[in-house]
């Protein structure tokens, strides 16, 4: 089985690459990235004979189609702006597709490609990562056991770094978008826009994560879950996170920059040159992104110290009784789910275990089997059911 990881030299892509090399069903993993030097460094760090490296420029459609032509599946671990273009290349090459999310609006556009993927005889699964991804599958587990659903509440709890730490652990453009774009929530049968960094609440996660302040953020789970389980009467769905895994102090500093317009994509004239402030901000922030090799550990060594719990609370009824499922996927010193989950999903797709067409994760995978598989990478799910005596 051959799987191409686009952005395989990136933070989450490199983790997906490592997980794929550890999978007995996979014998060929291509690290495809614009940065050939970074790709070579990832390959050297992982040290698997399954790996090959190829430079990829996603702006070249024909070259991308050629790259994917003999692949069984494609993991798109690049920034979500590329999702639609990569899906077009997958249709042309008849290659199964998965990605890490589309920040709600892009995901909604991607779903419209369902018929074309089905006609091409391939599958696409949108938003496979820590979140979106795991919360969708957790929701499916609860939905299969409830007669009705009232609320779906998602909390992504990440162990906070020290206040002085200045690091961005995933794509800087995505972080800025999550900080500045209006979060979408589903309430009373409709999608509504809210303000970033609002509706704070303290939420208790499993040890050692503990109690964290959670706030709204734009995310893809909300784009699909209320639709997938509309027949169960969903009234509310939201996603909350704690400062995107950064310290509140760092978020405040970045927020000040965006308030001064440095997140704008409208070009301005600077000494005769047209420059988008956003590009300058990304270039400066890139200096605070650690190399992907810092996110990896060879299988013989201990894994990085990732500590997070992704919780989905689903409230509904079973046999007329109010019932609440709390489903928490906990990672303590294990592999970061954002890279592991799409890698595992792509293998399922390549094996023909996902129906043709475009699907959200909750409609693509059997939850019990998939969640059990994640335990091989120290990602464990615990389920609590609360109901009347």
CATH class of the largest domain: Alpha Beta
What fraction, in percent, of the residue positions are helical?
A: 25-40%
Q: What's the helix count?
A: 13
CATH fold call of the largest domain: Dihydrodipicolinate Reductase, domain 2
Report the CATH architecture of the largest domain. Answer: 2-Layer Sandwich
Q: How many angstroms separate the termini?
A: 50 Å
Structural class: alpha/beta
Radius of gyration over alpha carbons?
A: 20 Å
Low-pLDDT segments: none
Mean pLDDT: 94
Overall outline: globular
User: In CATH, what is the homologous superfamily of the largest domain?
Assistant: Dihydrodipicolinate Reductase, domain 2
Domain unit count: 2
Total strand count, please? Answer: 18
Characterize the largest beta sheet: strand count, sense, and whether it forms a barrel: 9 strands, mixed
Molecular structure report:
This protein is of the alpha/beta class and about 400 residues long. It has 2 domains: about 1-130 and about 335-375, Rossmann fold (3-Layer(aba) Sandwich); about 135-335 and about 380-385, Dihydrodipicolinate Reductase, domain 2. It is built from 13 helices and 18 strands. The strands form 3 sheets. Strands 7, 8, 9, 10, 11, 12, 15, 16 and 18 form a 9-stranded mixed β-sheet that branches. It has a 7-stranded parallel β-sheet with strand order 3-2-1-4-5-6-17, with helices on both faces. The termini are far apart. The mean pLDDT is about 95.
